[in-house]
Automatic annotation (TrEMBL):
It comes from the Bacteria. InterPro entries: BBE (IPR012951), FAD-bd_PCMH_sub2 (IPR016169). Residues 52-89 form the Berberine/berberine-like domain. This is Berberine and berberine like. The lineage of its organism: Bacteria, Bacillati, Actinomycetota, Actinomycetes, Streptosporangiales. GO terms for molecular function: flavin adenine dinucleotide binding; oxidoreductase activity.
Length: 99
């Protein structure tokens, strides 16, 4: 759907993988592996790039993939309604393109 800035209107589940452990836990590598293995298992059915609200600002490739063909529309809306870049909690494909 290209009529809106957020193009994915297909039914989907949102799963956030969270793994926590104490700093002195000797199984930290095992916990990281569990989270990584689960993410890899879900990858074939996951949204391309991930859900934008859950992406960090340093995940440029995933951010660009998440918005896909609607990137330019989203950035145009951002330039129009937020030219001073006040709203920046949700990462955009390339924030410098909103200026």
């Amino acid at each position: 759907m290209t009529e809106t800035a957020f193009g994915n209107r297909d039914p989907h589940f949102m799963i956030e993988i969270i793994a926590l452990w104490e700093p002195d836990d000797t199984r930290a590598a095992e916990h990281r592996a569990w989270a990584g293995d689960l993410a890899a298992a879900l990858d074939p059915v996951a949204l391309p790039g991930g859900y934008p609200n859950l992406l960090g600002p340093d995940e440029a490739t995933q951010i660009a993939h998440a918005y896909g063909p609607n990137t330019e529309h989203l950035l145009a809306v951002k330039r129009h309604y937020d030219p001073d870049h006040v709203f920046r909690a949700i990462p955009l494909p390339d924030p410098s393109r909103t200026r």
